[in-house]
Amino acid sequence: MPHIDYYFSTISPYTYLAGTRMEEVAAKHGATITYKPLDIIALFGRTGGVKPADRHESRKEMRLQEMRRQSAKLGMKMNLQPAFWPTNPAPSSYAFIAAAKAGGGDLGALVHTLTRRVWADEQDISKDDVIRAALVEAGFDGGLADSGMLAGAEEYARNLEDAVSAGAFGAPFYIVDGSEKFWGQDRIADLDLFLSGKL
After folding, report:
1. Which domain holds residue 35?
2. Number of domain units in the chain
3. CATH number of the domain enclosing 38
4. pTM, 2 dp
5. Model confidence pLDDT, tens digit, residues 4-48
């Protein structure tokens, strides 16, 4: 049975655009998933990337065009310059980690719900009430927003180290069985082909 380590950020536009397509591919192939929320800005700094605000103007312009095209292609609502971005991703990531430990809901839906709040719903996912509502929408106990902060912080930091060690440098980033790497929501079709034995 294949296994996917899924590195993502709750404030990443491309994690939002991934929707739940990776989960659909994983279910199709009987693959298991370990969700690893991380600090994407710290990951950029550790792996030779540059945070969006510090990129050359041509890269900033291309990023916005690509986001517009990809969201249109996928039929997904997207505000290219959301009111609450960037925001602190740690609280929502800690809540996600608590939800993964508690169980009872849909983790793929929770990733999508949190990122949708940023990129389509104009909400601040650093706020407890927004996080709580996202948890409930994905089938989890809203009280998880207030629990496991220390453990969440430790796992969040460990996920960053794991990503660097595994060779991940962006989000979303999918690694199958510790070796085969897929970067970006536009590589989910390739992930499907790989799991089908066609790549």
Report:
1. 3-76+83-195
2. 1
3. 3.40.30.10
4. 0.97
5. 999 999 999 999 999 999 999 999 999 999 999 999 999 999 999
